[in-house]
Design brief:
CATH topology: Rossmann fold
Radius of gyration: 19 Å
Structural class: alpha/beta
Bound molecules: S-adenosylmethionine
CATH superfamily: Vaccinia Virus protein VP39
CATH class: Alpha Beta
Order of helices and strands: HHEHEHEHEHEHHEHHHEE
Oligomer: single chain
Distance between the termini: 48 Å
Number of helices: 11
């Protein structure tokens, strides 16, 4: 059955629309923004540390809302600092939306954007071919390591680009226990990883896996937990277009409702209901994102 299912990531437009809907139904971005204006603000101050210019990379930035939130915090607290900002994002639709957002946002004249439509691995390959030596003050990889084949290699490469005082921010879902009601995202993926089309992806890689990897390399980091939830009520109304679009993002299957067998669809919906919390006629999936701030090696 799995072979007839197509991965959502190969349809740039539907991926972008389903992710946008997921964000509208989820508190994930709000939690990330709260983190940026509280904890990350102090971390950015330690990165700036008297510098008048920063080199920054956003890897898998999507439409850039979170990137602009980081830039606005930087602007607010460090108004004189100029920024070279490289966006590494393979999805052309997302990249176009990011550019449009930049053009509509006032006060970004001190930032020079470079748009790189590539995957993280393609970027690494090109970096090595060109024998680049530039170092970066801040790099982030927010909710994107699910999409790479080898998250450890990607983390190691981008960490190697950090300047002495630089920081790498990773955000990824947590999963402390398969029995917890708070880690629904990873629980879903651990249950369905062999059924859904996930070639060259790492949907089950957790924040805890990343911390174990960093521990094994002796890398120092700080970590934080950001609880969030997503309202998936519409997924349970047969024929509801928005519910189907949201279910595409939850399963990462293109047109899941139309292409999955009735048994798989029923199983997925039952699993989602079982993992979720119901209140006021809403079906909510609870998650925790981990924010890991990685220091340069050595
Ligand atoms: C879940 S979205 C997160 C977007 C954004 N960081 C945010 O938090 O809203 C994941 C992003 O990673 C991008 N992506 C997918 N595969 C990638 C890869 N191999 N390298 C870099 N980015 C990738 C997707 O196109 C998408 O924009």
């Amino acid at each position: 059955m799995a072979s007839s299912l197509k991965s959502l990531i190969h349809d740039e437009g539907r991926y972008q629309r389903s992710y946008q809907l997921y964000l509208e139904r989820s508190t994930e971005h709000q939690c990330a923004k709260d983190f940026i204006h509280s904890t990350l603000s102090g971390i950015l101050a330690s990165v700036v540390d008297g510098k008048s210019h920063l080199n920054v990379i956003g890897v898998g930035s999507g439409s850039g809302e979170i990137d602009l939130e980081i830039l606005s915090e930087l602007r607010l607290k460090h108004p004189g600092v100029t920024v070279d900002y490289e966006v590494v994002e393979p999805n052309n639709k997302q990249l176009q939306n990011f550019k449009a957002l930049v053009s509509q946002t006032p006060g970004l004249d001190h930032i020079k954007f470079t748009w790189t439509q590539m995957t993280a691995s393609e970027f690494e390959e090109q970096w090595k071919v060109k024998k680049m030596t530039k170092k970066f003050d801040f790099i982030h990889m927010i909710q994107m390591l699910y999409y790479v084949k080898d998250p450890r290699a990607v983390i190691s490469f981008f960490q190697s680009l950090l300047d002495n005082n630089g920081k790498l921010l990773i955000m990824q879902a947590c999963c402390k226990s398969m029995d917890s009601q708070d880690d629904a995202w990873i629980k879903f993926w651990k249950t369905y990883e062999n059924t859904l089309p996930l070639t060259d992806m790492s949907m089950t890689v957790t924040c805890e896996d990343i911390k174990s990897f960093l521990d094994s390399k002796g890398v120092s980091y700080q970590s934080y937990e950001l609880p969030n939830q997503v309202d998936i009520t519409e997924c349970f109304t047969e024929g509801n277009e928005r519910g189907e679009l949201l279910l595409d993002f939850v399963t990462h299957v293109l047109e899941f409702s139309k292409t999955a067998s009735p048994e798989l669809k029923a199983g997925v919906l039952e699993h989602l209901r079982h993992c979720s919390v119901e209140s006021n006629s809403k079906v909510m999936l609870k998650n925790k994102s981990g924010a890991i701030v990685v220091h340069p090696f050595g």
